Amino acid sequence: MHVQHDREIWGDDVHEFKPERFVDGIVNATKGKGSSPFIPFSSGPCVCIGQNLAMAEAKTAIAMVLQRFSFELSSSEETRI
Ligand code: HEM
């Protein structure tokens, strides 16, 4: 939990919801770049045993939402692309 909330790694906006920080891939999401401290399921002997289930559930939920709604960029997002 501390790694995911560390200002030294993620920057002063660490507590902001900014999915765009991953736009260039996970390894480029942090201040240091080039390594991957994004470990929401931990790693090593204490790694989450539900990781694959959790990811499958998340993908299923997103797919269900995408089937039911249509999306378009807001005008502010269009100017950033
Ligand atoms: C987004 C969803 C989830 C996240 C972010 C997550 C995250 C984590 C993390 C960080 C740990 C390590 C905790 C520690 O080091 O003390 C952990 C352990 C664990 N998780 Fe998850 N988890 C998720 C979903 C699930 C699901 C769906 C299951 C079961 C169906 C599950 C079962 C477990 C179990 C049993 C452990 C303990 C593993 C062990 O100590 O041997 N988790 N999880």
Structure notes:
It is built from three helices and no strands. It has one domain. The protein has helices at residues 7-10, 51-68, 75-80. The chain is flat. With 81 residues, it is an all-alpha fold. The model has no long low-confidence stretch (mean pLDDT 88).
List keywords for this structure.
81 residues, binds protoporphyrin IX containing FE, mainly alpha, 3 helices
Provide a concise account of the structure shown.
This protein has 81 residues and is mainly alpha-helical.
Counting DSSP E segments of at least 2 residues, the number of strands comes to: 0
Distance between the termini: 32 Å
Mean pLDDT: 88
Strand content: under 5%
Q: Compute the gyration radius: what is it?
A: 16 Å
Q: Which structural category do the helix and sheet elements fall into?
A: mainly alpha
* Secondary structure: helix percent: 25-40%
The string of secondary-structure elements, in order, is: HHH
- Could you state the oligomeric state of the chains shown? single chain
- What is the count of structural domains? 1
Molecular shape: flat
What does the largest sheet look like?
Answer: none
Number of helices: 3
Bound ions, cofactors and other small molecules, one mention each: protoporphyrin IX containing FE
Low-confidence stretches: none
Helix-strand layout with pairing:
Layout (H helix, E strand, L loop, with lengths): L6 H4 L40 H18 L6 H6 L1
The structure holds protoporphyrin IX containing FE.
